[in-house]
């Protein structure tokens, strides 16, 4: 379970078309640069964000992302919460395995995104939707 | 409709990606490249991604696909100028960029393409992949 943190800023963006992914990535990059996150960590975060946004489009026809700047134990970071109302994931454990895909892709997205962030949480209920929360700390 | 321009330089096709690619644009680029390579009989494709901040699994797959498709019509593909942060992220993501060669910059990429083609033409390079 992801621990609570102090919320410094919050906004949300809708990801409903593939064209929405680019401005979304751009906004995440701006937020990450705003807390002086290093370039490699920024790239990790944006890549993970891109994978998850793409998943939402592909499997759930899109959804909403909360972009938050947070602070916990003196560390600042970016927290992204992806929420969709798609079909959900039947076996989350399996979906997190490298090389597993129901969508005919490489099966890199979800496990890869998990590796690229400091904290990762996924909750899914078949028929109701999926929510994924990731955190990348500025100096994590 | 927006499109990434493809430049022809002798036997090679040159593409510089200067904007953040959304999916449709990337797919169109792959199709355009292979069509153009086939039409012009190009022997090599050079893709400059030095201005690209992020390569996710979709983009990586497109690059691999371009390499694989080009190979089928006897052209080699070189991706040049990958930013270090992008390279680090790709490895962490676990994305194998199969089917493409890489070089540090356009100049080295061109040299690599020339050597690949010379190798194939003379059939002196049995280790070529």
UniProtKB/TrEMBL annotation, chain A:
The cross-references to InterPro entries, in alphabetical order and at most eight, read:
HATPase_C_sf, HATPase_dom
Q: Which domain of life is it from?
A: Bacteria
Q: Which Pfam families match?
A: HATPase_c
Q: Which SUPFAM superfamilies match?
A: ATPase domain of HSP90 chaperone/DNA topoisomerase II/histidine kinase
Q: Which SMART domains match?
A: HATPase_c
Where do the Histidine kinase/HSP90-like ATPase domain residues begin and end?
A: 40-140
Per its record, how is this protein called by name?
Anti-sigma regulatory factor
